[in-house]
Amino acid sequence: MILRDNDQDSLMLYVAYKPSLNNKGLTPMNGLYNIALKLLINDRGKFLALLIGVTFSIFLITMMTSMFSGILNRASSSVNNVGAKIWVLDPAVTNIVSSIPLPDYVLNYAKSARGVKFASPIFFSTALAKLKDGLYQPISIIGIDDKTLFGRPPLVTGNIQDIFAENGFIIVKDSDYEKLHSPMIGDEFEVNDFRAKIVGIATLPYSGIFGIPTLYTTYQRAITYLPTGRSTISYILIEPQTDKDIEQIKNDIRKIGYEALTREEFTNKIANFYKYRTGLGINVLLMTVISFIVGLSISGQTFYSFIYENLEKFGALKAIGAKGSELIKMILIQSLFTSLVGYGMGVGLAALVILFARERVANYAAQITFNNLFLALGLVLIIAAISSYIGIRKVLTIQPFDIFRN
Predict the structure, then answer these.
(1) Quick check: 6 and 312 in contact, CB under 8 A?
(2) With 0-12 CB in 10 A as exposed, 13-18 as middle and 19+ as buried, what is 86?
(3) What's the pLDDT band for 398 if we cut at 50, 70, 90?
(4) Domain range annotation of the chain
(5) Are 133 and 180 a contacting pair, CB within 8 Å?
(6) Taking all residues of the chain, what is their mean pLDDT, rounded to a whole number?
(7) 38-92 confidence digits (pLDDT tens)
(8) Helix, coil or strand: residue 274
(9) Does residue 362 sit in helix, strand or coil?
(10) What does the alpha-carbon distance between residue 233 and residue 123 come to, in Å, rounded to a whole number?
């Protein structure tokens, strides 16, 4: 019985991993790796198609989840920028911009609560600025406590004491700064028919999500410039005496019907609002699922085609003594190798695109986190598992005697 050319190639590959038949000192497992990778990489067309499918899928998944992560991070930017350890708010509040005013007695109660070092009010609202050229621009105004100035931004230019000057405002120099025509110290414009004068320029670690400039002023000036109801406190910021007092403070605030959250708890509450109570979360989820299905369909179909075209080689290996478990390991190695290489290329491509976009798009919010990477890795392993299953089913049905038919 004579082996055909393809069968002879398969025999030579099989010999490569038998330590008794080669002089390279390879173990059976190392030989198995060599066989699997040679079969895969030598078929360049199929290998390239597999890589493109997995890479494209991981690229889309990483981009979508990174944009979602960046948006969630910016949604709670004000909480992180202010830096208070405890925030007191109405239980019905779901995000930082939809504050429900707190009555003054809550502030007085917070100041007298056990374990409180100090408590300060803060005011959040939006207004309409009229620029010198007659254009109008929405702005975000944050009013900080006149006594403590707690939550003030770090200044680049100017003196924080100038915020007490007549009509004094501090502007944040971020990606939205130019929308107010890049004002400098001393420049003026109108805010709700009141005169506003820039007395300082600040920077913040995190930019906002809504793309409007941010200005800081004193609490009393903010509630004077902006229309409010009977209650004017948006949130109460509490600094505990020690971290051990946090739970006691939270329990005391809860007794009067309000909620006290740590900075991490408040950011999680905001994130949950955007995830589950807006269309943002479901849209990102759908796009991630679509990206996964695209990658799975391309890689699964291509890997099946690769296995089908190499059935004679797998059959020859089985005919000359390769066990079914060894053939399964070969397929797993091929699928895992392709998926991990595609994963690295997809993540790398996404990182380059995000880096490029951040340098050229002012409000681009995407960020790659460990959660994004682990999610993409988990999905690519699922793609590898399903692709392997498709190939394994086909290979295990091979009958060795079919390989030697003329």
Answers:
(1) yes
(2) buried
(3) low
(4) 5-72+280-403, 103-257
(5) no
(6) 84
(7) 777 877 877 888 888 888 888 988 998 898 888 888 888 889 989 899 999 999 9
(8) helix
(9) coil
(10) 6
Radius of gyration of the chain (CA): 31
pLDDT of residue 173: 92
380-383 contact pairs (CB < 8 A, 24+): 380/54, 380/57, 380/58, 380/295, 380/339, 380/340, 380/342, 380/343, 380/346, 381/339, 382/292, 382/296, 383/54, 383/57, 383/292, 383/295, 383/296, 383/299, 383/300, 383/339
- Amino acid making up residue 327: L
In whole angstroms, what is the distance from residue 284 CA to residue 245 CA?
A: 39
Rounded to whole angstroms, how far apart are CA atoms 88 and 221? 22
- Quick one: tokens of 174? 């971020």
Which of 162, 158, 172, 169 lies closest to 194 in space, CA to CA?
169
- The phi-psi region of residue 158 (left if phi > 0; otherwise alpha if psi is between -120 and 50; otherwise beta) is left
Lowest mean pLDDT among 61-75, 102-116, 259-273: 61-75
Is residue 137 within a helix (H) or strand (E), and if so which, with residue range? strand 136-144
Structure tokens at 36: 């699997």
The partner residues of 144 in beta bridges, in order of sequence, read: 122, 218
Give the helix, strand, coil percentages of the chain, each rounded to 5. Answer: 55, 15, 25
Residues linked to residue 125 through DSSP beta bridges, in sequence order = 141
23: Cβ contacts below 8 Å, ≥ 6 apart: none
Token pair for residue 359?
Answer: 């340098």
Q: Looking at residue 63, what DSSP letter applies?
A: H
- The string over 171-195, giving b where at least 16 C-beta atoms fall within 10 Å of a residue's C-beta and e elsewhere, is bbbbbbbebbeebeeeeebebbeee
Report d(CA 148, CA 129) in Å as an integer.
27
* DSSP conformation letters of 234-269: SEEEEEESSGGGHHHHHHHHHHTT-EEEEHHHHHHH
Asked if 54 contacts 349 with a C-beta cutoff of 8 angstroms, the reply is no
Please name which of 157, 79, 156, 166 lies closest in space to residue 122, comparing C-alpha atoms.
Answer: 79
Share of the chain above pLDDT 70, in %: 89
